Structure formats: structure tokens, C-alpha cells
Amino acid sequence: MPGTGLPGTRRRRPGYRGEALLALLPSLGVMLLVAGGAADRGVLYPLVLLSGSALGLGALLAIFPHGPQFLLGVANGLAMYACLFTVIGRAAFPAAPELTQALGFLLPVAVFVGACWWRRAGLARYARDGAADLNHLPRFARWLAVIGVVGVVSLSLPINRLSPPWQGVALLLAMAIIAVLTARVVGDVVRLLVDVAAIFQSVTARLGSLAVPIAAYTSLWALLAVVFGSLYRIADGLSASALFHGPEGPHRVSFADALHFSIVTLCSVGYGDIVPADDGIRVLCGMQMLASQLLLLFGFYEIMQSRQPDARRD
Fold this sequence. Notes:
Blueprint: H1 16-37, H2 44-63, H3 68-92, H4 98-118, H5 120-129, H6 137-156, H7 164-184, H8 186-238, E1 244-246, E2 249-251, H9 255-267, E3 275-276, H10 279-313
Antiparallel strand pairs: 1-2, 1-3
Helix pairs in contact: 1-2, 1-3, 2-3, 2-4, 3-8, 4-7, 6-7, 8-9, 8-10, 9-10
């Protein structure tokens, strides 16, 4: 139909360009975080990661005008791909030239976008339907298993003993295989992205009913953290000896230390940097742990209560 460039798709609404830009921002934010995390060995690869992801997101938005949930699903997939490529690539091809690493990352992305454009008329109906259909997942799982085999073989072979240029060649060969496999199952990948978009949309629709219990739980959680943090600091300040121990022995806690210990106790993390060393303070810690469990039950109860009107409507 006019205005889409895709057979059988709907006419774009007025203001679609602005919505598309707003949809791109959170997706690019995800990729910016991943690029920043991967910037520990130079800037070329992170810049290519970010720019290539931005071009891929923009191209897919142009091909499948499906809204912010679809783009967020694409960004999630790109982020997972970037993380796996970075970790496995550095383990299997540690001396590959940086330019080769950048080209290896871009190759499957470019081939996938090109395959989507080539088959856009047939794939458009998947993005237009907007309903999750998990019947294709077995085919997608088989594709993912083959991709996993490529990764396992790359890690198993002694490629890391080759010279840097040959490591680069091996990396490009592995990514070329992945690119070809991706092009062959591009329909299943697009369906998966649509499924993820439908799931995100469903979750977004439920967030309104969860806003009140989330706000109540967060407020009570913060109150418990502050109250017990203050009690820890007051108790330690009034005591003749330190009630807590650190890595170097007895430790007088500051208010910031007490808040940190209170938050760690509420979350049941147990870093071990500050530990209670007095029976009385251990009892107080036990009371906070009990309060945190009761708060968790309260949050679960409130969430279930918020779902009851939906159940009655169904």
C-alpha cells in the first residue's frame, strides 16, 4: 500500500517518523551500554559495534514498521550476539586484527538485514500480525544448535596458536558460515523477533496494574533499609567496642557503611566485607532478615491481587 514500500502492509500513521525515533532511542541505549562494556581493548570494535547496530536497527525499522517492542527485541538479540561474539571471539581468536574483528561482527548483521530486504514482501506479514506463535521455535532451535557447533569448533581447534593474520582469516570464515546459515533461516529469526515483541507488548500492558504494588514494595523496602541502617549505626556508635568486623578486624561503621550493610542484608547478598561480630547486632540482623521475607510475601500477595480483575475479565 502507499507509504510503506511493502506489499500488503498498512499505511503509516501521521507522526510515524517521531514514533520511530522514540522507538530507536531505548534500543540504541542498550547497544551503547554493550559497546561501552566491550571498549576494554580499543575503540574501533566498539564503534563498529554501535554504528553497525544502529544501521541494522534503522534498516529493520524501515523494513518492518512494527513499533518500539519489535525494536527492543531486535536490540536484545543484537546485544546477545555482540556479547557472545566478543567473549567467544576473544577466546578463540585472541590475536585476530581489530579490523578483522569488526568485519567479522558486521558480516552476519549485514547479511541478515540484506536477506530481510530481499524477502521483505514475504516477511512483512509476520511483522504485521503482531501475535506470538511459538510453533516455529523447533526450527529456530536447530539453527541455534548449528551456530553453537560453529562456536564449539572454533573454541576446540588450536586456532589461537596461529599467527594473527590466519586467526583473522579463521574468524571471517566462521562468521561467513554463521551469516549463510542466518540467511537461510531469516524467516524463523524474524518470527522470533515478532514473538519477543508480542511478549514485550503484553508485559508493557500489564505494567499499569503492577505500578501500585511495585511502588508500595519499593517504598517499604527503602524504609526498611534506612531504618535498620540507622539502627546499626546508632548501636555501633553507642557500643564501647566495634560491633562489626571488616577484612582487617574490628570496624567502626560510618552511616554509609551501615546503609550498605543494611541493603546487603535485605538482598541476602552477603559480600562479607562487613560482618556482625556481636550477639545483639546479630539478633538485629535476624529481625531485618525476617522483615525482608515478610516484605517479599507482601509484594507477592499484592501482585497476585492486582491480577484478580484481569482474571475476572477473562
